[in-house]
Amino acid sequence: MEISEHRTPAACLLKDAVRIDQDKILNPEYLIRSADITPDTPVLVILVAGKGTRFGTEPKCIQPVHGIPLARHSIDAFRRVTDSRVIAIVGYRHEDVSGKLGDDMIRVLSDNPAGGTAFAAYESFCIPDLIERNPLLVITMGDRIVPSSIFRRLSIIHSKERRKQI
């Protein structure tokens, strides 16, 4: 049996489930800033497209934790390690989410906010040449707080592995 016979129909449709297109970028002026993405620079992809309303009427990613939107904690922790790019995959109530999280990131409007993690992560490739530049993509959910120590450790491990390859 060939490998393709074992795949589920959903696994074969990822590229068909969402469009990878630059016109989904809500703030294309930030693409100029993406020119400095290199294989040595980590990029944070934060998934904040879903409804996530279990904590009330506001999406989980913008619920305040110590007065700061939940997803912003991870963004700030990443920025304490590097000034590299952040790509936010937004969807449900994207205007509210974008307003609460700030304007210091590239925002991609999801075609399928309820499609799940794989669909949303795949949409980060709307950023031109992201695949070719091959940076370390750190993908996290907007309803988790990831501390700086995790981002720092990922960057160190990635740098060591890249040096081994050279």
Description:
The protein is of the alpha/beta class and 166 residues long. The protein has one domain (3-165): Alpha-Beta Complex (Spore Coat Polysaccharide Biosynthesis Protein SpsA, Chain A). The protein has 7 helices and 6 strands; from the N terminus they run ααβββαβαβααβα. The chain has helices at 9-12, 14-17, 70-81, 94-101, 117-122, 130-133, 148-165, and strands spanning 43-48, 64-65, 68-69, 86-90, 106-109, 137-141. The strands form 2 sheets. The chain has a 4-stranded parallel β-sheet with strand order 5-4-1-6. The chain has a two-stranded antiparallel sheet with strand order 2-3. α3 (70-81) crosses α7 (148-165). The radius of gyration is 16 Å and the shape is globular. The N and C termini lie far apart (38 Å). The model is unreliable at 1-10 (pLDDT under 50).
Q: Tell me the strand order in the biggest sheet.
A: 5-4-1-6
Oligomer: single chain
CATH architecture: Alpha-Beta Complex
**CATH class membership:** Alpha Beta
Overall pLDDT metric: 85
Task: Give the number of helices.
Answer: 7
* Relevant CATH superfamily: Spore Coat Polysaccharide Biosynthesis Protein SpsA, Chain A
Strand content: 5-15%
Helicity, as a percent range: 25-40%
Rg calc: 16 Å
CATH fold assignment: Spore Coat Polysaccharide Biosynthesis Protein SpsA, Chain A
Elements, N to C (H/E): HHEEEHEHEHHEH
General form = globular
